Structures are given as structure tokens and as C-alpha cells.
């Protein structure tokens, strides 16, 4: 499968019965690929099939060997009481705080159950982006975000953040990718290097 | 003889050290159970432990050895069957309770010994109970630092394990078995409700006031050990059964913390805005 992180070939996915497909797409290192479509067209189901949470009814999904996936669902887990700070959450997620946007850094010392929905959403997206994952799956990450935070999310999805420092040299290599689901076409066009429409 | 003299009496040293080890470990496990929304499972496991301890006693096995058999079986079943949620734990409690009193009624031990296990028989703790409690503390000390980051990650990012085909059942089963063992040894020493209170109340207090996870663990440990020492002294001084006194002390601590929070909240609301 050449250098692609993930290859989706004629995939039909669903929960017992087909919800989406057939769909084909590749995600190459350094790419931010958007999945666009109307509500209910099966964008999240395709993401779930990649994360092995939905049934793969036809076709195949090929992963680069050793691929590590971070999956951020539409609504992050929110418990009634969560005595965990943002910093601790990032540590558990194996995410770095280096180059973290100031707006997230400012609230990272607080308990996560005392953050607003938008602050928590951004923190969880950062946990996925700044972690060890090679492929980051984001399902409707603009949920709960006001226009200001949506701009911050755009900044976080900048392809420069997908680079990693090569262990053998000081050079940075772009070896990670993002697959992003949203029903907001404009956001996808701003954030993604490529948008795939799901019928 | 004063309560302090009694505590320092060599006869009471073993129960004191045994109880301290239990009071340190159970609240830490309780913090994870509360975060996983599985605190009711502790009560189910405690009932199973009590029933199997009683059954073990009928066959001449010490309670501290008999109790883990039922609890570990329950913990393994819970993990393998994926039995989660209040409904599953409710059935576990009912099964354990029914088995406990049926065994008590149909063996020579009678209901008295069953009640002794429910109330706790800390003052009868000997070398075997001490070894079990210290072994539990050692096991928890070795396992929890490894399990905790994985369990917290699984709680907040539940789909990453499956997406990355990780052998998640290993750490979930390990934690279930550690919980079962802790509840069994706890039940056999501080009693069924005492062990359950040590799991639930310190963690509940910590979740209310801790500024983060590290502090949650610190507050759990301090509340568990502090509550245990207070109860130990009070039960000796007032000549009361230990288990109910421990539960009462922990509930009083919880009430004090909640009252303190309420007062602080009211003071903040009443304070007039500062004019600069």
C-alpha cells in the first residue's frame, strides 16, 4: 500500500446492515483529509469502521504496519465528577504540552469537570494531536466551539503540527495524518488539504 | 486502661497494623472504582467474599483465605462476562447476601458468625490476617502505578484500546482481580460494610474537594487512614463494635467536608464585590 497511512478500499460499513459505502480513500502522511456529507449519511460510521467500532460489511481497510490511532469521538467522555486536571489528562493520553496553544495552556491546571464544553473539547483534540498517534480520527470536532475556538482548532490542525522530529537528525518529518469528519463544509475547506464527499 | 494504652498493648498491635494496611489500600482502589462508575461492584464483591468466607469457615479454612475465593470468582466473572452497570452489581449483591445467610443457616456456624463477618472482626486479626493485608498492600503498590494510567486513559479515551487492538482485557481483568482480593481481605478483617465504606467514602470526599488526580489519591489515603485510626480509638474507648464505628466516623468526615464546602460557598456568595 505504498506510503499511505491508511487505505480504504470499496468499504461498506454499518451496524448489522449497511449505513455507508462503498467508499474508497487514502490518507498519506502529512495530509488532513476531510469527510463531508449531510447528517446521517454515514461519515461517523466510516470513522467507526476504521476504529473497529462498526461492522465492515464489504471491502477492506489497510493500515500501515504498526499504525497508532487516536480517536476523538463527537462528544468527549464527560463524567459527573472528574478530579483530573487538564495536564494530568494530557499525561495519561501520552500527549506533549510543547507548543500547546496559550488558550488551552491557561486552563490546563484546572479540573476538567470545571471546564466549559468548548475548552474540554479543545483539550481532548489537543490530547489526540499532541500524542503518539500516527493517524488522528476526529469526529465533528467543532461541536461546542464558538467562532473564536473554531479558529483555534484550525490553528491546531495546521499541517506543521503533524511533523515529528527525526530521531537520527534535527530534521522534521511529516509522517502523521488526520481524518476529520464534519458537516460544516467551510470548516473542512479551511482545515483540510483534501475533502472527500460522502453521498 | 485508656484507649491509648489499649492501642499500644501488644495484643492490639496486629489488628492496628492490619487495619492500617487495609485502610490505605481500599480508598485508592475506591478512587478508581468511583471514576469507572463501579463503586457498587465493591459491595457485590464484599457480599460474595463474606459468603465464601463463611463457607470456608465451615470447612475449617480461615476467613482471610476463604473470602478471596468467592470474591476472585466474582471479579473474574464480572471481567470475562463484561458485566458492568448497577443491574449486574445489584444481582451480585443479592446473590452474595442470599448465599451468606443460607450458608449461615445451614452450617454449625450459625448466624452469629455471619454477623461477625458483616460487622467485622478486626480485633481478632492475627498473624495470618496481617500477612494477607501486607501482601495486599505490596501487590497494590506494585500493580496500581502500572494499571492506573491505562485505566484512566481507557476511561477518558475509551475507543483508543479497540482502535489500536490493544490487549485491554489484561489490565481490566488485573484491576478486577485486585479489587476482588482487596474487598475479600478487607471484608474478612474490617467487615462487609466497613470495607465498602473504606472504598466509597474517602473517594467520594476526594472527588468533591481534590484539585486533581494526585491530590485525589493523597486525600483518599489520608481520609482512609485517618478515619480508621479515629474509629479504632473510638471503638476501644467506647467499647463498641469496630465496623459500625468505622462507617459512622467516615460518614461524619464526609458530612464535615460537605458542611465546610457549603459554608465556604455561602461566604463567597455573601462577600460584596470589591471597589477599586
Automatic annotation (TrEMBL), chain A:
Which residue windows are transmembrane per the record?
none
The domain of life for this entry's organism is Bacteria
Instruction: Tell me which PROSITE patterns the record gives.
Output: ABC_TRANSPORTER_2
> Under the GO molecular function aspect, what terms does this record hold?
ATP binding; ATP hydrolysis activity
What InterPro entries does the entry give?
A: AAA+_ATPase, ABC_transporter-like_ATP-bd, Metal_Ion_Import_ABC, P-loop_NTPase
Stretches assigned to the ABC transporter domain: 6-199
* The keyword Metal-binding is assigned to this record: no
Q: Keywords for this entry? A: ATP-binding, Nucleotide-binding, Transport
- Presence of keyword ATP-binding: yes
Which Pfam families does the UniProt entry name for this protein?
ABC_tran
SMART domains noted in UniProt: AAA
Q: Give the similarity note.
A: Belongs to the ABC transporter superfamily.
What protein am I looking at? ABC transporter related protein
Automatic annotation (TrEMBL), chain B:
Q: What is the membrane topology listed in the Swiss-Prot or TrEMBL record?
A: Multi-pass membrane protein
Question: What's an example GO BP annotation here?
Answer: transmembrane transport
In the UniProt record, the signal sequence range is: none
This protein's record includes keyword Transmembrane: yes
Q: Per the record's keyword annotation, is Transmembrane included, yes or no?
A: yes
Q: Name one GO cellular component term.
A: ATP-binding cassette (ABC) transporter complex
Localization, per the record, is: Cell membrane; Membrane
Alphabetized UniProt keyword annotations: Membrane, Transmembrane, Transmembrane helix, Transport
Q: What is this protein called?
A: ABC-type transporter, integral membrane subunit
Amino acid at each position: 500500500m505504498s506510503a499511505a497511512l491508511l487505505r480504504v478500499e470499496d468499504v461498506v460499513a454499518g451496524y448489522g446492515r449497511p449505513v455507508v459505502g462503498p467508499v474508497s480513500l487514502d490518507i498519506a502522511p502529512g495530509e488532513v483529509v476531510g469527510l463531508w456529507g449531510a447528517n446521517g449519511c454515514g461519515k461517523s460510521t466510516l470513522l467507526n469502521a476504521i476504529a473497529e467500532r462498526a461492522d465492515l460489511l464489504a471491502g477492506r481497510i489497510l493500515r500501515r504496519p504498526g499504525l497508532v490511532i487516536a480517536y476523538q469521538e463527537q462528544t468527549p467522555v464527560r463524567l459527573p465528577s472528574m478530579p483530573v486536571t487538564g495536564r494530568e489528562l494530557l499525561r495519561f493520553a501520552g500527549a506533549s504540552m510543547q507548543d500547546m496553544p496559550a488558550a488551552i495552556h491557561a486552563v490546563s491546571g484546572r479540573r476538567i469537570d470545571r471546564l466549559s464544553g468548548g475548552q474540554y473539547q479543545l483539550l481532548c483534540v489537543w490530547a489526540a494531536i499532541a500524542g503518539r498517534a500516527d493517524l488522528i480520527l476526529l469526529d465533528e470536532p467543532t461541536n461546542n466551539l464558538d467562532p473564536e475556538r473554531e479558529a483555534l482548532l484550525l490553528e491546531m490542525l495546521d499541517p506543521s503540527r503533524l511533523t515529528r522530529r527525526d530521531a537520527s537528525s534535527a530534521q522534521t518529518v511529516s509522517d502523521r495524518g488526520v481524518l476529520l469528519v464534519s458537516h460544516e463544509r467551510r470548516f473542512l475547506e479551511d482545515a483540510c488539504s483534501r475533502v472527500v464527499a460522502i453521498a | 486502661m485508656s484507649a491509648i494504652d489499649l492501642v499500644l498493648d501488644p495484643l492490639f498491635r496486629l489488628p492496628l497494623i492490619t487495619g492500617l494496611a487495609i485502610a490505605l489500600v481500599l480508598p485508592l482502589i475506591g478512587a478508581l472504582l468511583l471514576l469507572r462508575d463501579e463503586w457498587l461492584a465493591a459491595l457485590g464483591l464484599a457480599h460474595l467474599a463474606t459468603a465464601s468466607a463463611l463457607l470456608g469457615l465451615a470447612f475449617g479454612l480461615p476467613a482471610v483465605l476463604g473470602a478471596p475465593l468467592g470474591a476472585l470468582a466474582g471479579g473474574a466473572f464480572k471481567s470475562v462476562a463484561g458485566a458492568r452497570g448497577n443491574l449486574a452489581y445489584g444481582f451480585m449483591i443479592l446473590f452474595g447476601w442470599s448465599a451468606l445467610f443460607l450458608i449461615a443457616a445451614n452450617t454449625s456456624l450459625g448466624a452469629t458468625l455471619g454477623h461477625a463477618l458483616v460487622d467485622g472482626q478486626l480485633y481478632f486479626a492475627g498473624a495470618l490476617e496481617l500477612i494477607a493485608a501486607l501482601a495486599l498492600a505490596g501487590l497494590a503498590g506494585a500493580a496500581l502505578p502500572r494499571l492506573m494510567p491505562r485505566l484512566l486513559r481507557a476511561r477518558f479515551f475509551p475507543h483508543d484500546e479497540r482502535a489500536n487492538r490493544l490487549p485491554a482485557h489484561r489490565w481490566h481483568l488485573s484491576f478486577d482481580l485486585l479489587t476482588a482480593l482487596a474487598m475479600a481481605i478487607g471484608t474478612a478483617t474490617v467487615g462487609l460494610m466497613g470495607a465498602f465504606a473504606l472504598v466509597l467514602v474517602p473517594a467520594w470526599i476526594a472527588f468533591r474537594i481534590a484539585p486533581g488526580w494526585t491530590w485525589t489519591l493523597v486525600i483518599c489515603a489520608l481520609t482512609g487512614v485517618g478515619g480508621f485510626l479515629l474509629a479504632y480509638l473510638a471503638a476501644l474507648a467506647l467499647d463498641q463494635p469496630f465496623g459500625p464505628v468505622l462507617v459512622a466516623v467516615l460518614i461524619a468526615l464526609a458530612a464535615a467536608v460537605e458542611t465546610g464546602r457549603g459554608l465556604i460557598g455561602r461566604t463567597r456568595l455573601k462577600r460584596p464585590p470589591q471597589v477599586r
